Amino acid sequence: MITIGYILIGIGAFFYFLGGLGIFRMPDVYNRLQAGTKATTLGSFSVILGVGLVNLEFLPKALIIIAFIALTNPVGSSVLARAAYLKGIKPTDKTKVDEYKGGGNK
Amino acid sequence: MSFSVLIVTFFTWMILTSFTDVKELIVGFFVSLVVSIILKRFYGIRFDFKFPVRIIKFIFIYLPVFIWQMLKANFDVAVRVLNPSLPLNPGFVKIKTNLKKDAAKLALANSITLTPGTLTLDIEDDELIIHWIDVKTLDEKEKKEKIAGVFERILKGVYE
């Protein structure tokens, strides 16, 4: 159990690193948010789950914390992306199509 | 106050602190009371005869699919980040959903955000605006199937 826990923490740290690298390499806000959200969710899930497995008393709490992250992380990144778009931050030149058209109807 | 919210909040508090410490339980009860009074105007959870069925569907049908998709999303983005040529083909696309309830739409938007290369920006009535890191198709049906297909079918069973 403890070994699996430490392996999970290691995997989590690796995905945190990829999240940071993604934020560094991506060309614009929206792609950076993609890297930031995706890589760090798996990173935090496996770090927290790993801590729960290393110390079994902590496991129920760890699961609740994971549920809260799964609820709040995507909402946060959506709101950041929407705010950036409505503020008029230009997406990268590679962007192929824009069906949002400057903010839609509102 | 909303009784269902009180129960859920208090139970969450108990898991996070302790089931036996009386001081913790008293403080937790008052905190949940305040939360449920504030949330009364916005949110209530209906406990009806379908509720256990929905919970079971959520845990055994939705969660495995969601976890699998989330793992795929993580590896997809990880490969993109590590690839020296940074393969990107981003765009903003619009898809129509036929889910009606707000909670169901929120769950769908959250699931989309956590799946491969898609990020929900906005919900306008029944349209979701999505930033897609790799736009594969612009066909109305195909793009919906690629982005939301599985989740929409499952969530329809869970929430409606």
Characterization of this structure:
The complex is a heterodimer of chains A (106) and B (160). Chain A is built from three helices and no strands. Chain A is mainly α and 106 residues long. Chain A has one domain. The model of chain A has no long low-confidence stretch (mean pLDDT 82). Chain B is mainly alpha-helical and 160 residues long. Chain B folds into two domains: 3-39; 51-159, no CATH class. In chain B, 60% of the residues lie in helices and 12% in strands. Chain B has helices spanning 3-16, 22-39, 51-82, 102-113, 140-159; strands spanning 91-96, 118-124, 127-132. In chain B, strands 1-3-2 form a three-stranded antiparallel beta sheet, with helices on one face. In chain B, helix 1 runs antiparallel to helix 2 (22-39) and helix 4 (102-113) packs across helix 5. Chain B is elongated and about 60 Å long. The two termini of chain B are 25 Å apart. The model of chain B has no long low-confidence stretch (mean pLDDT 78). The chains are: A mainly alpha (106), B mainly alpha (160). Chains A and B meet through helix 1, helix 2 and helix 3 of A and helix 1, helix 3, strand 1, helix 4 and strand 2 of B.
Task: Please specify the SSE layout and strand pairing.
The complex is a heterodimer of chains A (106) and B (160).
Chain A lengths: L1 H24 L3 H26 L4 H29 L19
Chain B lengths: L2 H14 L5 H18 L11 H32 L8 E6 L5 H12 L4 E7 L2 E6 L7 H20 L1
Antiparallel strand pairs in B: 1-3, 2-3
Helix pairs in contact in B: 1-2, 3-5, 4-5
